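ingest -> validate -> predict -> emit
validate: passed (alphabet ok, no gaps, 281 aa)
predict: started
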Amino acid sequence: MKLFLYGGLLFCAAAFGCRNVPQPDQVLCRELRYGEAWQKVHAAEALCAAGIGREAVLEEFTRELAESTPGTPWRVGILRVLVRAEPARRDAAARELLAIADTPEATGRIHAIESLGKLRIPVPGSFGMKLAQESSAPYGLLLAAQAGNREALEQLTDLLQQGNPATAANFLLLDELPPESIIALRQAADNRSASPAFRAFALQSVILATGNPAELHEELRRRIAEETDPAALRIYLGTLGGFHAPGDRALLTSYLSAEDPELRIAAAQSLLTVGETHEAQ
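emit:
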């Protein structure tokens, strides 16, 4: 397997050529091969989103699946990646994620509920509300809101206004937000008493919900320049590519050599989203 995986990564990196300056695909392939558990997940998801190195991702995570323990957070992360890499696995993964989400003693229960939302696997609104009562309210409410439950969306907005740290990220996974939710997110993004990551997720949600307006592009660049919290900076870097602005390439490229691997992954993913191009070697 190692020889095949190594070959897959070489193919992946060769897509953009090799230069002294790290290239985004090379950064992601390196993290896929050498990164810690969740760094591998994030790198793999970024590669899949860019349509690069799917065979290498499938080879690596199919092996990880065979060696993983059912019901654990790592198992959930593996399932999430495999669905991204090969959509034909979606139904089988959905059944397992639903089973984990419905098992109170499973250590990966919260991760499974979150992954159902991230993968947009439809569940009945009543099931989401049940999970909200039994486990983590924000993630259960997210599933119910995705199913069209208006009450769940209102409760999510209430939790956001109360400063619940898990809520801001959940709004990213909803296709349409009412004006009151966008207003609450904008207030959360400006709430300096909240954690930096909470504020970052709130701003990211506002940007996506309002169609990437130019004034928020400038605000995002300013926050990147000023932010010292790694978790918040990762969110901002991962959001910047959505503006598809060639002028952001230099800023993003400067983070490809960052010490923090999550910053490297976020910058690489955004560069691929912007449409970074290289001469084939």
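The chain is about 70% helix and 0% strand.
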